Amino acid sequence: MAEQPNLLDNPVFESPRMIREFCENTRKVLRPAYLHLALTADELEAVLRDHPTMGPNRFGMDARVRARLVAGHMRRAAEGLAVASIEMPRTFTSYRRHFLEPMQHDQGRPRRQFDVNDQ
Fold it and tell me: Do the Cβ atoms of 100 and 24 come closer than 8 Å?
């Protein structure tokens, strides 16, 4: 089984390949973490719903509300990981659009010389 990349290492961006690999590897780590947190939030809410209620007149509704509030924090964390995993491929696509494509279009095009001595 292949080792997961260590995101705590200092990234080195010396070529487009290295940028692409960093984006791909980061997404490979974030996506399973998102799925894990989302499922765990559902499990946590289900467990907390069964806690005893605060008062006899609420028919268990207070436990459901409190369980949803507590699990909501984990769901928001999962949503943050989902956004991060989506933005990683967009990062490389943006890099390619803003840096690589303009360089490819400019190659082979004759450049005018700017003469600073012509006054």
Answer: no
Give the Cα separation of 22 and 38 in Å (integer): 24
- Tens of pLDDT, residue by residue over 63-110, are 888 899 999 999 999 999 999 999 999 999 999 999 888 777 666 666
Spatial CA neighbour of 92 closest among 10, 15, 8? 15
Specify the pTM: 0.73
| Secondary structure of 42-95 as H, E, C letters | HHHHHHHHCCCCCCCCCCCHHHHHHHHHHHHHHHHHHHHHHHHHHHHHHHHHHH
Paired tokens of 95: 């890099």
- 41: which 2 tokens? 């939030």
| pLDDT (0 to 100) of residue 50 | 86
CB-CB contact of 1 with 74 (8 Å):
no
Query: Is the Cβ–Cβ distance between 41 and 68 less than 8 Å?
Result: no
Output DSSP code: residue 9. S
- Contact (Cβ atoms closer than 8 angstroms) between residue 59 and residue 71: no
